[in-house]
Design goal:
This protein has 387 residues and is of the alpha+beta class. Helices cover 32% and strands 17% of the residues. The chain has 15 helices and 14 strands. α1 packs across α10 and α2 crosses α3.
Length: 387
Amino acid sequence: MKQLTGSESRLLLTVLLTCILGVAASCTEQKNPTAPTLKTKAKQDADQQRLSQDPAAVWQQFLAVNFAGDQACADCHRKEYEAHQRSGHSNTAVRMQESALAESLVKAGDYQDSRRDQKWIFETSDGDFLVKDEKHAAMPPLPVSWLLGSGTHAQTAIAVDERRQKGVELRWSYFANQKGLGLTPDHERFDEYNRNSIECFGRPMQAADVLACLGCHMTVGPPPGAPFRAEFFIPNVGCERCHGPRKQHVELAKIGRGHESKPLINYASAEQYIAACAQCHRDENNLSANSQPNELVRFQPYGLKKSLCYLNSNGKLSCAYCHDPHDATSHNRVQYIKQCQSCHQAAEHSTVCPVKPQGDCIECHMPAVEWTAGIRFHDHWIRKPGS
């Protein structure tokens, strides 16, 4: 199979998820790569007719045939699997009603909005988690669909109207440093709102907004035009988000032929690596003209690509140079400094810091910036102090 590079790798899943639907039914019976099952034409016609009448079945069949799931990777890639389970990527999307936060909110009962004269009431009914405005009895309770974020820093809830393909980002989010709810970032601009619209609950989201939001917390989502049903998503950023669908590889590996299924995505350069991360961690393509420093701190690929360390690395410095892409973010400052010193040492064609050669490189050259609510991130723009 051809290895994909550059923009091809970034478009791989989109192409797979849109183009393969028309032939998904014909690909589902080859469960053993060495012994395909023969079917009668009548049975094939019956299956095709069933699938043509039920697009949901087509999509779910496509997922089952092509995606193996994280657990399937564990047999051969145990170290990477266990590292991934420690990471925020593995736990960044959960159905709201199944979350620990939902349970604690229902137990608490209510929450006073920090900027509006609203008190939110939390309850469950028929398996749904509901939120309603205590002072606006005419506004029906809103079923909340997903809780997004690992909780390392924060978690934000969204409600999705599956049929109309719209949604709303709730005004309240959970902040780990506060051990409780606070205003969802950037929701100050919705202090003034139409009380009888969806703005009552938070930021309105069109279809593109919903997909962009969910897309960065999922391995894969529904094909274009499909309803945003929960079963159409594979929650969390799993192995196959970055390595592509690997069911064929897993099945072949069981009979010692895993090498025959070539990688679908090839990270051949730092540029391609950073582009993959930037799909969610964002780069210059996501900037707006009025982006502020506290907003840019969330654009780590953008910061890294501005750095002379990256520009002068001859295509070698990527996110993975300092971060294990499978594991939770390390806070081992000593190890990060060693990474800096691996290039910046007393040698020809190398630059040693003239101020503090043995100091804390990170604190001076990539300081933490407050994003919101006391949460601080490093913007990854490696620069001289004061730049």
